[in-house]
Amino acid sequence: xxxxxxxxxxxxxxxxxxxxxxxxxxxxxxxxxxxxxxxxxxxxxxxxxxxxxxxxxxxxxxxxxxxxxxxxxxxxxxxxxxxxxxxxxxxxxxxxxxxxxxxxxxxxxxxxxxxxxxxxxxxxxxxxxxxxxxxx
Length: 136
Description:
two-stranded antiparallel ribbon; 136 residues; 4 helices; single chain; six-stranded mixed sheet
């Protein structure tokens, strides 16, 4: 018996990639707000569109729901972003992202530390960098 999973990859049109990568305003930038433990606090409309969901579907989910590579990573070390994640962010490392509809794509992530009602949080900006994951 052959049990294989099928993976659907998104094919961004050139116009969609350009608009996702070259955002003209804050509203066009895909942003997630995360608690320091990785729980998604908020999802803006641009991120919801990128992830093919409504913002409330991501609220209170762990970031690993859409970014499996962050399952084991500690996002914060004390009050600072994990140095490894900060480094990967600076070099434009491509993180696998899985939209809620099951579509896979790759994004560069940019982490910013913010304070929200006295609690340290992360502002996570997602920038698509690839149409699909490279076939292995």
